[in-house]
Amino acid sequence: CGVFGVIGVTDAANFVALGLHALQHRGQEAGGIVSYSPDIGFNSARRFGYVRDNFTKASLMETLPGSLSIGHVRYSTAGSKGQTQIRDVQPFFGEFSMGGAAIAHNGNITNADSLRKELIERGSIFQSSSDSECIIHLMARSLQQNIPERMKDALRRVEGAFSVVAMTRTKLIGVRDPLGVRPLVLGRIGDGWVLSSETCALDIIGAEFVREVEPGEMLVITEKGGIESFHPFERTRPRFCIFEHVYFSRPDSILGGRSVYETRRQIGVELAKENPVDADLVCPVPDSGTPAAIGFSQESGIPYAMGIIRNQYMGRTFIEPTEQIRNMGVRLKLNVNRALIKGKRVILVDDSVVRGTTSMKIKQMILDAGAAEVHFRIASPPTAWPCFYGVDTPEREKLLASHMSEDEMCAHLGVDSLKFISLDGLYRAAGEAEGRNPDAPQYCDACFSGEYPVAPSDMIAKGFEV
Ligand code: 5GP
Ligand code: SF4
Ligand code: MG
Fold first, then answer.
1. How would you list the strands of the sheet with 417-420, edge to edge?
2. Which UniProt keywords apply (predicted)?
3. How far is the CA of 181 from the centre of ligand 2 (A)?
4. Is the CB of 383 under 6 A from ligand 1?
5. Per CATH, which fold does 2-238 belong to?
6. Fewer CB near the last or first residue (10 Å), C or N of the chain?
7. Could you report the per-residue pLDDT of 66-93, keeping only the tens digit for each?
């Protein structure tokens, strides 16, 4: 998901709509915006589909006045699978004795099932199936006298990954979980402040990047421009999601002081060093494989070419939640450039292999177009474990790498070769010159290593073995 918030500018919701549009890659199912103005109070709009199709309408935006606003773009990882229900679309809103608050959450709460059960037993009435709603109910039960303090209480009970953007009548609040798994940055626009999942959404509104919200930090920002920083959690070594660098974030964003594009290009360089192969062309699987393919080509000297053309009017395939749509999606989205491919030995660079659906279809399309050889080079290590921190991966059995070795996957896909970047190579590309520190890994890499930095307690209760 993507979160965005603005305080201290006129018609803040318009800026939020633009910010969410720049974060659309983080979630395409639905979006929501809440604003506050002293005259009318809180207002919200939650809609299915793209930001640009909903939050550009003057008639809708006029209902969201005020200089304080937050928003969310959704992609479902927890709660209702399949068809998103409007009740699961954020921001969520709660009315407390000291006023209302709205919250937007990116990440996944790994103890949400047990929290929900406890809260329902104690009288909470849940409106949605979303894990994020727990935060509102925990806040409602807190005895603290102001909303930021209630939020601290609530979030101290929550396990897992959260980057939260919240608002009261007068405050914009941003929080990251102690490990800082999901991103969150602070920006400045005129006299106002901005919170955003990624820096690319600051750029779109002409806001200036100030700094990242630190792992475990809570920022409380008021209209007058005051900004307070708290550290409500026990300090721990951060473990940012390395897959944000590989796939999830936009390449024009800066994460942890590093250009995402440059990290991806460097992954391609490392891949070419680790797994060279003689071929005629390096082609990305667009768009997610593009920067790594550029790096692979630069390092290997093999020409870069667009062997697969992407229809720009389709979204990200993986993010479509049902299997059927996903299967269609590959063909609807990608087509082979036949004239280029015929008779060529082709290296295909993609960011990841999850179920293998994409790779299988693309291999077939490339062979049908008359390629002489197909070599896959993958910009992440084999995805052998599900993510429980806010990236939607299927259950373990559906992950190709959970039950197949690299060679078996190669045979299964029927390609001439298939190689993945090593975990160390990935860390080097992400700026860790010495590679992964096995005693104290610098990132979360659980989907590759199976080492979960936060025990996924709901899943363990359901029998998941870590
Ligand atoms: P597969 O087709 O192997 O199941 O999925 C891999 C493809 O899904 C890649 O092309 C990748 O770009 C795309 N993808 C989209 N979203 C995600 C995600 O959240 N996780 C992973 N691992 N891949 C994703
Ligand atoms: Fe990111 Fe993978 Fe960790 Fe999930 S398990 S937070 S995708 S590195
Ligand atoms: Mg892809």
1. 281-284, 345-350, 373-378, 417-420
2. 4Fe-4S, Glutamine amidotransferase, Glycosyltransferase, Iron, Iron-sulfur, Magnesium, Metal-binding, Purine biosynthesis, Transferase
3. 8
4. yes
5. Glutamine Phosphoribosylpyrophosphate, subunit 1, domain 1 (3.60.20)
6. C
7. 999 999 999 876 545 566 789 999 999 9
